[in-house]
Amino acid sequence: MPRLGSWIEPFPEGIYVRPADAWVDPSSPKPRALVTHGHADHARGGHGEVWATPETLAIMGVRYGPQVERPVTYGKSVRLGEVEVSFVPAGHVLGSAQILMEYRGERVVVSGDFKRRADPTCPPFVVTPCDIFISEATFGLPVFRHPDTGSEIDRLLHRLRAERGRCVLVGAYALGKAQRVIMELRGRGFDDPIYIHGALERLCNLYAELGVPLGELRLATGVPKEELKDRIILCPPGALNDRWSRRLPDPITAMASGWMRIRQRARQRNVELPLIISDHADWDELTRTIREVAPKEVWITHGREDALMHWCQLHQIKARELNLVGYEDEDD
Question: Does residue 327 register a pLDDT over 80?
């Protein structure tokens, strides 16, 4: 009797689905790629054809230019070779999906990156029972328990209002995190213009085109220093301490990332206001998700594999580690 999941094979560059002749999130160009979401450690250019949600394809178009697109909306299924493939919301960023593959009575879910917290920029994660659940483990240690997102946004707004004449400069990844921070601010009633670094403009414009109402955004570059006082400014994490940021009016340097739980990371980046806002599941959410999905096996990728493997073994769930290359935390 063949082992469970013998028709899917992990390689360093991605997961090969033999009866579909397709790769999931390959890190090098392939003839047929199934892509969970638009972050660069999962979505690469140069593939022969790309199967993904329409939103992920739009993001890849902005980043990589024209490609052979095969859009699949949530809840729809397509047949590739002998495999039935469908895309299910992952709650990570706009367009992010878990990929459900069904073949000869077996169900495999590649979750990609996912989170369980509410996010105003994308549909919530949908629990999808399966035989094999391929899970990330970015924050797969018990120390990672993310606080309430609203309370972190309230801390940001409190600092802005308490220290007049300064600005709050928030480092946030260009795809997903920046737009989420903006929408969380809008949800707390902050209707002022939000200023952004030029590197965020294309994806913020795309989010707006795809129906995410970000409100009034203005480019911070070239704006008189006086105008930026008492403002919130968003930039890529790499711009927090570069020459661009030095022209801002006495910035309170903040960063929105799950890694801000680790004080040393905040100190290394000279972050004055660490905001623990993550687009990945924390430890409790990872383990809760595995319980709810109830798989026979868990395959664990890119992250703290050992702790999550140990938890699975304690709960009589077979687990294995996948050594995939090219996965990064992308300043979550």
Answer: no
